[in-house]
């Protein structure tokens, strides 16, 4: 015997346990909001840009091969920027209470395809410290790269600045709450169908027909107890009854 589930049955299951879905969604959104606003530490982001470009003399014209070489060097420079050779000096100069390896987890170096500009992105719980780390890393790298690569082709294109009203990039409370609402809805709907699947009680005539594979020929409805009328003593009614009794007796 095959069981078929219609959209109507699905909506009936959801409507029957709508309170459970709403409750789970509300709890998930509330927990996410509390954690985002009061538990997680805000993280700020600061950026600085460096330009990789060979120094030119009067006789040197624009060379496509030189530009391509600079672009290829950026990949190497990205690894050097986050290496202990650079970050150890950054930690020492800023007197940070962390290791170079820990600091490298806060720094991300990115560059667009076929671009000679690299961007140093730093994330930290302090907006001021994030800008200091970004600028110091770029300065130290520019100073140390001639010793490491025997080339002097790095310039600081733009420095990280601290805005008057710096806003954190993490956490994002509204996004976290939206995700929690979606997850809560999914969990609530899944739990509703699970409870419906585990519920093996018979509720309708259709359930009996599906299990016994026999037609239902009669249904016994629920009979509620009818309350008995209470004896009401009213003077006017009693007088009429007495009067009628005397009339019939005569």
TrEMBL record:
Topology relative to the membrane: Multi-pass membrane protein
Annotated Tyrosine-protein kinase G-rich domain residues: 143-194
Compartments it resides in: Cell membrane
Transmembrane regions listed in the UniProt entry: 18-40, 174-195
Region of interest called Disordered, as start-end residue ranges on this chain: 230-250
Top-level taxonomic group: Bacteria
GO molecular function: protein tyrosine kinase activity
Record's keyword terms, sorted: Cell membrane, Membrane, Transmembrane, Transmembrane helix
Protein name (Swiss-Prot/TrEMBL): Capsular polysaccharide biosynthesis protein
Organism field: Priestia aryabhattai
Taxonomic lineage of the native organism: Bacteria, Bacillati, Bacillota, Bacilli, Bacillales
């Amino acid at each position: 015997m095959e069981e078929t589930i219609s959209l109507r049955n699905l909506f009936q299951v959801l409507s029957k346990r709508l309170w459970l879905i709403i409750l789970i969604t509300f709890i998930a959104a509330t927990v996410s909001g509390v954690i985002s606003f009061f538990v997680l530490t805000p993280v700020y982001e600061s950026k600085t840009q460096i330009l990789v470009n060979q120094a030119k003399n009067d006789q040197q014209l624009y060379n496509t091969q030189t530009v391509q070489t600079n672009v290829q060097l950026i990949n190497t420079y990205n690894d050097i920027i986050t290496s202990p050779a650079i970050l150890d000096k950054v930690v020492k100069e800023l007197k940070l209470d962390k290791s170079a390896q820990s600091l490298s987890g806060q720094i991300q170096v990115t560059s667009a395809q076929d671009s000679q500009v690299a961007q140093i992105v730093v994330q930290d719980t302090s907006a001021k410290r994030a800008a200091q780390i970004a600028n110091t890393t770029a300065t130290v790298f520019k100073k140390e790269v001639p010793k490491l690569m025997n080339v002097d082709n790095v310039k600081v294109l733009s420095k990280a600045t601290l805005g008057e009203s710096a806003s954190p990039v993490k956490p994002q409370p509204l996004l976290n709450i939206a995700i929690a609402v979606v997850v809560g809805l999914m969990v609530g709907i899944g739990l509703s169908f699970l409870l419906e699947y585990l519920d093996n009680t018979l509720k309708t005539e259709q359930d009996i027909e599906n299990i016994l594979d026999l037609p239902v020929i009669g249904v016994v409805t629920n009979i509620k107890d009818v309350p008995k009328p209470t004896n009401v003593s009213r003077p006017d009614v009693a007088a009429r009854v007495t009067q009628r009794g005397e009339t019939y007796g005569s």
